[in-house]
Amino acid sequence: MATNQNSSTITGDVKSRIDKIWDTLWAGGITVPVTILEQLTYLFFIKLLDDKQRHEESNAIEFGYELENPLFKKGEKWLNPETNQEIAYEDLRWSVFKGFSAQNMLHHVRNNVFVFIKALVRRVVLPTAVICRMPCSASLRLMCCSR
């Protein structure tokens, strides 16, 4: 009789990659599984935002129009409200900071990228949640409402 393998089992290269990320975060001092998942979610989110804008930029070039209201404004700086330092919007893009050294990336993501995401969520998601009277999820509450 043949055994039925679970089709949702992660194996091979994908499992190896996930294990490597997990080990890296664990070695960096992030040992609570929920926190690891939360950090990965924020990184996936910023990557999706960057991918979306890269696609929009490509379309703008191909069809000859100027991109309106880009999230990552080329040549402009974002003021980090927690440090009062100006950070180039370009440096907040996944495609840019993924090339930083490990130490620089950790510092930049922790002190700038996550702050940028929090500010973005406060500006875009929370007003909508208030209007719709929808409660924030635990992750959003921790990310947006902590001061």
Describe this entry's structure for a reader.
With 147 residues, this protein is mainly alpha-helical. It has a domain at 42-47 and 73-145. It contains 5 helices and 2 strands, in the order ααββααα. The longest helix is centred in the N-terminal third of the chain and has 31 residues, at 33-63. The protein starts with 11 loop residues before the first helix and ends with a helix. 6% of the residues are buried. Residues 129-147 have low confidence and may be disordered.
Radius of gyration: 19 Å
Spell out the helices and strands N to C: HHEEHHH
The strand count comes to 2
Mean pLDDT figure: 82
Main sheet summary:
2 strands, antiparallel
Percent of residues in helices comes to 55-70%
| Estimated share of beta-strand residues | under 5%
Q: Count the helices. How many?
A: 5
Note the gap between the termini: 59 Å
Q: Which consecutive residue ranges, at least 5 long each, have pLDDT under 50? A: 129-147
